[in-house]
Amino acid sequence: MLIAGFPAGSFQTNCYVVAPAAGAECVVVDPGQNAEEGLDELIREHRLKPVAVVLTHGHIDHMWSVGPVCGAREIPAWIHPDDRVLLSDPGRGFGAMSKQLFGGLEFSEPDDVRELTDGAVLELAGLELVVDHRPGHTGGSVTFRLDDEHVLFSGDLLFRDSIGRTDLPGGDHQAMLGSLAKTLTLPDETVVLPGHGPQTTIGRERASNPFLKDLEHGAPGPNRGL
User: Fold this and answer.
1) In which order are the strands placed within the sheet that holds 13-19?
2) Looking at the domain assignment, is residue 13 inside a domain?
3) What mean pLDDT is predicted for residues 78-106?
């Protein structure tokens, strides 16, 4: 198994490639702002052939480069239907802040967009990615599991020592708590590859994440990640 990544753009959003091995087909996870150059470097270094892009959610810092990445390689993008509108209108994910942050920028869907469903198993690049709908950060937030490898791409659901924000349009704190509770049922050894910051494990976060200790009491989450 090959998993490599880098923080893209000013948001430092983790973009990943995942493949069975070097020299194989691969899947791109969350190509954020100005991710093309970093992706090209990883693809050349490991002799990979991208066959799809999968998005943990529709916020602009996770999908900024999805159009050019998919267009250059004629590959599909996968996203949950509740977040699909953000591909062409990312400002809807930020409300009053959108003009200040993204005024004048124009986005459009890739030519081939496919919709994710809860519990689906995507068979891509010789991999089996299990899709779990985990709303809270956005209505269409998902995670991707590689069960054979005990790996979770958590997007902006769960971070090392933190959880995702729920104060933006489409955020839902109670839904976030429910999504976190479901995610914490994964084995302790599951490696969590988040949308921002360093990797962690389910066991570590269950034991020490301050925002999970009072999960059943509805403790508020911090403003981490877009």
Assistant:
1) 2-8, 13-19, 25-29, 49-54, 77-79, 113-115
2) yes
3) 83
- Whether 77 has a pLDDT exceeding 50, the answer reads yes
152 within domain boundaries? yes
Q: Where are the beta strands (DSSP E) in the chain?
A: 2-8, 13-19, 25-29, 49-54, 77-79, 113-115, 121-124, 127-133, 142-146, 151-155, 158-159, 162-163, 191-194, 200-201
Residue 134 lies in a domain: yes
Query: What is the pairing mode between strands 158-159 and 162-163?
Result: antiparallel
Q: What is the pLDDT of residue 213?
A: 83
Structural domain count, the chain: 1
The enclosing domain of 14 has a CATH number of 3.60.15.10
- Give pLDDT tens digits for 121-176: 999 999 999 999 999 999 999 999 999 999 999 999 999 999 999 999 999 999 99
Residue 225 lies in a domain: no
Could you tell me if residue 47 is left (phi over 0), alpha (psi between -120 and 50 degrees) or otherwise beta? left
Question: Structure tokens of 215?
Answer: 């999960």
Could you tell me the residue range of the domain that residue 7 belongs to? Answer: 2-89+106-208
Q: What is the mean pLDDT of residues 76-100?
A: 87
